[in-house]
Amino acid sequence: MKSFRRAVEANDHAAIEALLAEDVVFTSPVAFKPYPGKAITAAILRGVSRVFSDFRYVREITGEDGRDHALVFEARVGDRAITGCDFLHLNEQGLIDDFMVMVRPLSAAHALAEAMGAQFDRIAAEAAGTAPAGESPAQSR
Question: Could you tell me which of 29, 62, 133, 135 has the fewest CB atoms within 10 Å of its CB?
Fold first, then answer.
């Protein structure tokens, strides 16, 4: 999905959020329970952009019907190199309604879990339309 890839590579969170369906379900590589909804998914993706450095997509695979996409990425979480894949499914309107991420190696997945855990209060506040003390939701982005 070229528009999503361009938005992520440009760090354009408004464009990323515009590509998410209201009923999108985000499945994290480090959390057991999926996260349903556009607000929490967008907040998680903003959190990931704060945690990852040197992020780049290295391969894109599209299913036969054009509604399933796999975007392979490389990045760093602290001192750990991480490789992962964003699996996206598009609904009838062309919006992302299923977003699953898988990562490797295990040491990098642990680093990601720790870094995202440190972000979770901010992520929850952004998803709720509030922000941590002293910070407006706009500043959270």
Answer: 133
